[in-house]
Design goal:
Layout (H helix, E strand, L loop, with lengths): L2 H16 L4 H11 L8 H18 L1 H31 L12 H22 L1 H7 L4 H19 L12 H13 L7 H11 L4 H28 L5 H31 L3 H20 L1
Helix pairs in contact: 1-2, 1-3, 1-11, 2-7, 3-10, 3-11, 4-5, 5-8, 5-10, 7-9, 7-12, 8-9, 9-10
Protein name: Undecaprenyl-diphosphate phosphatase
C-alpha cells in the first residue's frame, strides 16, 4: 500500500463513517475496484477507526466528559446503596436509597450501555460473516440498496421530541440491534442507527448525538478484540506511516462530516443520499457480475 492509497482510504473512511452511505461498503468497493492491497492489515483498519473516533471525541468533548463524570458518580452511588442495603439488613433499618438515574446524562450513559449489549453480541457472532462479505461486491451492493431504503424511511418519519429522559430502555436495545446489523458492509451504521432513532421518536439533534456516541464503546470494543491480530502482523515502517496518515486524514474529514450530518438531519435531506446509495448499490451488483 502506498501513501496516496492510505490518504485515499482515509478520505473515504472520514467521508462515509458519518454520512449515511456506509464506510465499510465504500472501502470494500474501493479496494475491490481499484485493487488496493492493504495486505489484510488489521492495524490499518483499526487506525482508520481510531481517526474517526478522535473526530467524535473532539466534536462531542463536552458531552463525553460529562458522561464519564456521571458514569463514575453512578458507580459511587451504587456502592453507597449497597452499603445502605447491608446496613438496613443488618440493623433492621429503613434508610432511603440514593436515586441513581436522576438527570439526562445519567440516563444517556445507561442507554448507551443498553445499546452496546446487542451490538457486541451481534458483532462478535457475525465477525467471520462480515469479513467474508467484504471480499465481494455483491453483498455491499445489496446492503447499499437497503441503506437507500432506510434513508427514504428516515425522510418520511415524523419529527420526534424524545430526549434521554423520554427514551425507554427498549428503544435503546432496539437501536443497539440496528447498530449490530450495520456491521455488514454497505449497510450504513450512521444511516441505520439514525433511522432507528428517528423511528423511535428521538429529537433530531439528539438522534445524531446518540448515533455517534453509541459508536464509541462499540468501536473501542471491536478494536480491543482485534489488537491481538494486529500485533501478530509484520509491522514495517511503511505500514506505520500509512496507518498514521490514514488515521489523521480520516479524523479531519470525519470532523467536517459530523457538522454536515447535523445540518442534514435537522433539515431532513436524506433523499440525495438515498438515491446515491441506490445507484451505487446497483453499480456494485453489476460490477460483481461483469468484473
Amino acid at each position: 500500500m502506498t501513501i496516496l492509497q492510505a490518504i485515499f482510504l482515509g478520505i473515504i473512511q472520514g467521508l462515509t463513517e458519518f454520512l449515511p452511505v456506509s464506510s465499510s461498503g465504500h472501502l470494500a468497493i474501493a479496494q475491490n475496484i481499484f485493487e488496493i492491497d492493504t495486505g489484510g492489515s488489521m492495524l490499518f483498519d483499526i487506525m482508520l477507526h481510531v481517526g474517526t473516533l478522535a473526530a467524535v471525541f473532539v466534536a462531542y468533548r463536552k458531552d463525553i466528559v460529562r458522561m464519564i463524570r456521571e458514569a463514575i458518580c453512578i458507580c459511587i452511588d451504587i456502592g453507597a446503596n449497597t452499603k445502605i442495603w447491608i446496613s438496613n439488613r443488618k440493623n433492621d433499618e429503613a434508610l432511603r436509597y440514593k436515586r441513581i438515574i436522576h438527570n439526562n446524562y445519567r440516563k444517556f450513559v445507561v442507554l448507551i450501555l443498553v445499546s452496546t449489549i446487542p451490538t457486541g453480541v451481534i458483532g462478535y457472532a457475525a465477525k467471520n460473516l462480515v469479513e467474508a462479505a467484504s471480499a465481494t461486491l455483491i453483498v455491499p451492493g445489496v446492503c447499499l440498496l437497503l441503506t437507500g431504503v432506510l434513508l427514504v424511511v428516515a425522510d418520511f418519519t415524523e419529527d420526534g421530541k424524545k430526549i434521554p429522559r423520554d427514551v425507554s430502555y427498549t428503544n435503546g436495545f432496539f437501536i443497539g440491534i440496528a447498530q449490530g446489523i450495520s456491521t455488514l458492509p454497505g449497510l450504513s451504521r450512521s444511516g441505520t442507527t439514525i433511522t432507528a432513532c428517528l423511528v423511535s421518536g428521538f429529537d433530531k439533534r439528539f438522534a445524531v448525538k446518540y448515533s455517534f456516541l453509541m459508536a464509541v464503546p462499540a468501536v473501542l470494543g471491536a478494536s480491543v478484540l482485534e489488537i491481538k491480530d494486529a500485533v501478530a502482523e509484520e509491522i514495517t515502517g511503511n505500514l506505520v506511516l500509512c496507518c498514521v496518515i490514514g488515521a489523521v486524514v480520516a479524523g479531519l474529514v470525519g470532523y467536517v462530516c459530523i457538522k454536515v450530518m447535523l445540518s442534514i438531519v435537522r433539515k431532513k435531506k436524506f433523499k440525495g443520499f438515498a438515491i446515491y446509495c441506490l445507484v451505487l448499490g446497483v453499480a456494485a451488483i453489476a460490477a460483481h457480475f461483469i468484473l
